[in-house]
Specification:
About 40% of the residues lie in helices and about 20% in strands. By secondary structure, the chain is an alpha+beta fold. The chain has a 5-stranded antiparallel β-sheet. Strands 3-6-4-5 form a 4-stranded antiparallel β-sheet, with helices on one face. A two-stranded antiparallel ribbon has the order 1-2. Helix 1 crosses helix 2, helix 1 crosses helix 14 and helix 9 packs across helix 10. About 45% of the residues are buried.
Length: about 350
């Protein structure tokens, strides 16, 4: 958990909730901040009591070199080397783009979630949208630039309002709903602050939905009704600023359409174990796929746990099931032992 991305605060909250849930199921759990090393139980409790929201504005930190692989449990044992499985509750940056996953695979450590290719595809919103479009899944029109594009050109091609955001990342960090040419330019400068490409997306007005995927099964659809114009960082993590209904109160045909599209996106992007796919349904009832999350939030206020609960799966059971998927994959991938013949 943790790490050095701008989603660090949410990741710490996710990780501590997962740790508590797995301990409730009888598992031995060690917690590691990927940026700074092991976390003790007192620190875990402080993180769990803290509230992610306005007070936790997105920040970047400079990690301690080698913190992840050198992390030790308080008793001095190498927690990663002896773990049955690493539960990744990292969001954004190196924790979700395939970097940490590659490191764990190289070290021969079992872990949960998607493998490096799937993580990289889902993290890159431009690639995600290209794959969705080519597969026939509707996604809003977009442009992307390595640096901010001329606002007049963008508005001429996509119209107003439009969404401006980094081409990678999540939690609506540095996202702007621009209603004027001036806001497009300012939003692009903000999106580019982290050194990422800038993605401009046509705004689709409608109802917001999300679909969690567990294993190879779509969970119940969740409807999100934010207090703001869109589901921004504050609405996601400040209690009371969004109403989330699970399962969504929509016709069964629409729920099935969204679930089928979510499964298609999950498979198309080569995601594994669990993910979350976000949608807007416009006024005509047409669904538009926005993006995919390879490691969605697992805080007390997160969407996948609420969706799983609507399917009859409480949070500790959800976390344990994900752990089992990681262990089973490691067993399948383990090369068969080859006897060495004596000369």
């Amino acid at each position: 958990m943790g790490g050095s991305s701008e989603e660090r605060a949410i990741s710490l909250a996710s990780g501590c909730e997962v740790a508590a849930a797995l301990r409730a199921r009888g598992h031995e759990v060690a917690t590691i901040d990927a940026a700074f090393g092991a976390i003790d139980r007192a620190a875990e409790e402080r993180i769990r009591r803290a509230r992610v929201g306005r007070a936790e504005a997105p920040i970047r930190v400079s990690p301690r070199p080698g913190a992840l692989l050198e992390a030790e449990v308080i008793h001095g044992e190498d927690s990663l080397a002896r773990a049955d499985v690493a539960f990744l509750a990292l969001h954004g940056g190196a924790g979700e783009d395939g970097t940490v996953q590659t490191l764990l695979e190289t070290a021969g450590i079992a872990y949960v979630g998607s493998r490096p290719v799937g993580c990289a595809l889902a993290m890159d919103k431009d690639l995600t949208k290209r794959l969705l479009r080519d597969a026939g899944v509707d996604t809003p029109k977009w442009l992307v630039g390595r640096s901010p594009l001329p606002p007049d050109d963008v508005v001429g091609r996509l119209g107003l309002p439009l969404v401006v955001k980094p081409a990678s990342g999540g939690s609506s960090v540095r996202l702007t709903l621009a209603r004027s040419i001036e806001e497009v330019g300012a939003g692009a400068e903000r999106a580019a602050e982290g050194g990422d490409r800038v993605l401009y997306e046509a705004y689709v007005e409608g109802r917001e939905f999300t679909v969690g995927v567990l294993g190879d099964e779509a969970l119940p659809v969740v409807e999100i009704e934010p207090a703001h114009d869109f589901f921004d960082f504050e609405c996601k993590y400040e209690p009371g600023l969004a109403t989330e209904t699970a399962p969504a109160e929509i016709p069964g045909s629409l729920a099935e359409t969204l679930q089928e599209a979510a499964l298609l996106a999950h498979r198309l992007l080569r995601l594994e174990h669990f993910s979350r796919i976000d949608f807007i349904v416009d006024r005509s009832g047409r669904p538009w796929c926005l993006e995919a999350n390879a490691l969605p939030g697992l805080t007390a206020n997160s969407l996948v746990p609420k969706s799983a609960l609507a399917a009859g799966l409480d949070f500790p059971e959800l976390c344990e099931r994900i752990c089992n998927m990681g262990r089973e994959r490691a067993e399948r991938m383990r090369p068969p032992s080859t006897p060495i013949a004596a000369a």
